[in-house]
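Researcher: Let's walk through a ligand-bound prediction step by step. First, I give you the protein sequence. Second, the SMILES string for S-adenosylmethionine. Third, you return the three-dimensional complex as structure tokens. Ready?
Model: Ready.
Researcher: Here are steps one and two:
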Amino acid sequence: MDIANTTQDQAWNGAEGQHWADHADQINAAVTGHLLEAAGVGPRDRLLDIGCGTGRSTRAAARLATEGEAVGLDLSAPMLDRATRYAKEDGLTNVRFTRGDAQVHPFPAGRFDVAISQFGVMFFADPVAAFANIRQALRPGGRLAFVCPQPAERCEWYQAPSEAFGATGRMPDEGMFALADPDLTAGILTAAGYQHVDIQPLTTSLFFGRDVSEAVAFFTGSGPARALLESGAVTEADVVAGLGTVLRRYADETGVRIPGRHWLVRAERGA
Ligand SMILES: C[S@@+](CC[C@H](N)C(=O)[O-])C[C@H]1O[C@@H](n2cnc3c(N)ncnc32)[C@H](O)[C@@H]1O
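Model: Step three, the predicted complex:
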């Protein structure tokens, strides 16, 4: 298997990959409908989902592409194990998952009508090469649609847990905000050969648990929090107490949801 993004590959296959696999399927659920609508997924579409994680958006796309197919690609084996299991549990027969690095994966040329991604395209070491590789997987006239975060200061789901870490400052962002500047993103897509780039704001809340203790456990076990704990700058008790205080603000009887401002990006492959 060709892997160019080796650091990401290690991160998403180690403890972080397992942690996300255990929690990820619900987090971005509010984004999926907006993404699929922007992608205009139809019954006959062959769809590629980049950085599909546990496959919530891939499964939702497969339900729309009843006579087509949905293929999820991700670096993370733990995420893909979950994705495969959930799709089987849902009885979906037109969905499959592949492990690979979107930047260099040997996609069949012109295979897909549409490529989507829900927070899965910000982590490329060479974004122009990655988006060009995805473009060649699209048929002429094929579409690209993805959702990525706006700058960290507009994402309360990032600021709130950072605040809980107090004087130690923000959580490390690990590439999460690499496409936060829409001009930069438009330039990357244009350099990769796309046309008709359109970038719109999208405000949605992300879901972090059915109650405060579940949300606290999620953030305490995430890579950024673990890195801070390992650095010795904070104690686990401080982190748990700080997170509890902050996350209670976002809790109601249906769970803990924290808003954020994102970009909904669309582009076309062209001829
Ligand atoms: C923030 S998660 C989002 C997962 C999923 N789309 C969701 O909405 O829950 C980012 C995902 O992108 C994947 N990823 C990061 N870099 C990648 C690459 N170069 N090729 C394929 N997948 C990648 C990670 O393994 C991870 O599953």
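Researcher: And what stands out?
Model: The domain at 6-150+175-205+261-268 is CATH 3.40.50.150 (Rossmann fold). Residues 5, 8, 12, 24, 27-28, 51-53, 56-57, 73-76, 79, 101-103, 118-120, 123-124 surround S-adenosylmethionine (CB under 6 Å).
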